[in-house]
Every structure is written in C-alpha cells, then in structure tokens.
C-alpha cells in the first residue's frame, strides 16, 4: 500500500500541475481539454439532428468513456475526495455520464447535457486566457454570459424533450429554442406556446430565472470593476483594482496587478 502511494504521488502532482498550472505544458493541456469540451457540447447541441444516424450511439459511448476518465483524473488529483464530490460540476458530469450510458432509460434527462457548457467556464484556462488577452477585468462579465448561455440551452433542451421531441428533429429544436428566447426576453409573440398547466408553469419559471440572469449580466457590465482579494484583517473579498486600503477596516492591501 505504501509503495502504491509513493508511485501515485508523483502522478497526482503532475496531473495537478497540468490541470491548474500556468506553464506552457499546462496551458496546452487545458486548451486541449477545452477544445474537447467544445466538441462534446457541439455534439450535444446537434443531437436532435443526428439521433437517427447509426454512428450516434458510438459517439455517445465514446464521450461517456472520456467523461468517466476525466472524472477519475479529477478524483485522483483532488486533495479532498469528499469536497470534490460536493462540487456542482462533479454532479453535472455524473448526470451527463448517466444520460450517455443509459440513453434510452434516462432520455428525459438528456437536456441536462447542456450544463456541460459550464465546464468550460470552470476550467482554469478560462481565466488564464482572459488575463493573457488583457481581459482580466471582464471575468465577471464572461462568467455571467456563460451562465446565461447555459440556462438558455438547458431550458431549450428541457422544452424540446417534453414538448417538441415528436416534431422533426431540426424543426422541433428550433421551435424550442425560439420559444425559450422569446420567453426569456419576455417578448411573448405568442405564435409558439406550451400547452397545459405544465407548459404554463415552465413558461413562468423560465421568465423569472431568465430576467434574473439578465439583471445579473447587466450588473456585471455596468458596475465598477473589482478584484477578488480577501482582506487579511476583516476578510472582505472584493476591492477596487487600485485600492490601497480596505474600505471595511482600513487595513493596507497589497493587491497584485497581474492581468489588470
């Protein structure tokens, strides 16, 4: 057992450096993972157009193998497995993995695959690239945009699964997406509506959460830029980028200017 730990420790450290580091090798590794994420998300979004093709299930299971392998790697490098299990992204990946392994049984939950978009924003490369391109101050805005896109496509998948699935793949998905955008923006053209009480409740929830995300996005755009830097004395988390003293307690700060 001790020898196994001694062998696994270097591997764990190496994987952790690749996952969270900022070296050239780490950035290349994280970019590769991000590109694979984009390819997977594209496959999920094109699912309604491809579901009848013979190779669809093959790709489905290949993606399942990849997500399972990535979950295993994340568990290996995690210093606290319990904390890793409590991460929202871990549960998202587990749900997505379930829909991939049992597509017929868990068909009704296939819309949750859109949550995989969130994986891109959770990767360190997301903030690293923003800083490297001089957009470090746009982190909050970029995160709000990703959250809005995740919500948009998750609701679209839900509406398509429960209301438009029997419509031709392409047309049904477009109708679901059109309805979602019209509802989230409260435009309400009324040419496409969801039938029954369940449809009305879906519309209500979509409008309430959609408006909240719109407000959050607007706030991220217009509010003054602040950096995340906990005050050593009082613990206040966010400060102006050029702050010298903490506004709450007056303690002298030493905020790094990297990426500003």
Provide a brief overview of the structure.
This protein is an all-alpha fold and 260 residues long. The chain is 65% helix and 2% strand.
If you had to describe this structure to a student in words, what would you say it looks like?
This is Ion transporter. It comes from Ciceribacter naphthalenivorans. The chain crosses the membrane at residues 25-46, 58-77, 97-120, 141-164, 201-222. One of its GO terms (molecular function) is voltage-gated potassium channel activity. Pfam families: Ion_trans_2 (PF07885). This protein is mostly helical and 260 residues long. The chain folds into three domains: 1-134; 135-223, Helix Hairpins, CATH 1.10.287.70; 226-260. Helices cover 65% and strands 2% of the residues. The chain is built from eleven helices and two strands, in the order αααααααααααββ. It has helices spanning 2-20, 24-45, 47-50, 56-77, 81-85, 88-101, 117-122, 124-132, 139-164, 169-184, 196-222, and strands at residues 226-228, 238-240. Strands 1-2 form a two-stranded antiparallel sheet. Helix 4 runs antiparallel to helix 6 (88-101) and helix 9 runs antiparallel to helix 11. Residues 1-7 have low confidence and may be disordered.
Basic shape: globular
Query: What number of domains?
Result: 3
Low-confidence stretches: 1-7
Count the beta strands. Answer: 2
Number of helices: 11
Beta-strand residue percentage: under 5%
Q: What proportion of the residues is helical, as a percent range? A: 55-70%
Mind telling me the C-alpha Rg? 22 Å
Q: How can the largest sheet be summarized? A: 2 strands, antiparallel
| Structural class computed from helices and strand pairing | mainly alpha
Protein name: Ion transporter
Organism: Ciceribacter naphthalenivorans
Pfam family, one: Ion_trans_2
Keywords: Membrane, Transmembrane, Transmembrane helix
């Amino acid at each position: 057992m001790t020898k196994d730990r001694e062998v696994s420790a270097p591997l764990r450290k190496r994987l952790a450096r690749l996952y969270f580091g900022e070296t050239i090798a780490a950035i290349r590794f994280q970019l590769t993972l991000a590109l694979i994420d984009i390819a997977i998300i594209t496959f999920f979004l094109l699912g309604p157009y491809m579901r009848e093709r013979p190779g669809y299930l093959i790709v489905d299971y290949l993606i399942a193998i990849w997500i399972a392998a990535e979950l295993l790697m994340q568990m290996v490098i995690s210093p606290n497995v319990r904390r890793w299990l409590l991460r929202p992204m871990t549960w998202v990946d587990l749900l997505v993995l379930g829909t991939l392994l049992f597509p017929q049984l868990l068909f009704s939950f296939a819309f949750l695959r859109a949550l995989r978009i969130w994986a891109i924003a959770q990767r360190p490369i997301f903030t690293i690239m923003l800083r490297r391109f001089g957009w470090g101050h746009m982190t909050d805005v970029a995160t709000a945009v990703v959250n809005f896109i995740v919500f948009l496509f998750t609701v679209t998948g839900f509406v398509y699964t429960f209301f438009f699935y029997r419509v031709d793949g392409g047309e049904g998905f477009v109708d679901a997406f059109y309805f979602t955008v019209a509802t989230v923006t409260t435009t309400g053209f009324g040419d496409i509506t969801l039938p029954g009480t369940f449809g009305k409740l879906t519309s209500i929830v979509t409008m309430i959460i959609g408006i909240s995300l719109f407000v959050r996005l607007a706030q991220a755009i217009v509010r003054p830029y602040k950096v995340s830097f906990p005050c050593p004395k009082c613990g206040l988390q966010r400060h102006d980028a050029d702050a010298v003293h903490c506004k709450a307690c007056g303690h002298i700060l030493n905020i790094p200017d990297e990426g500003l």
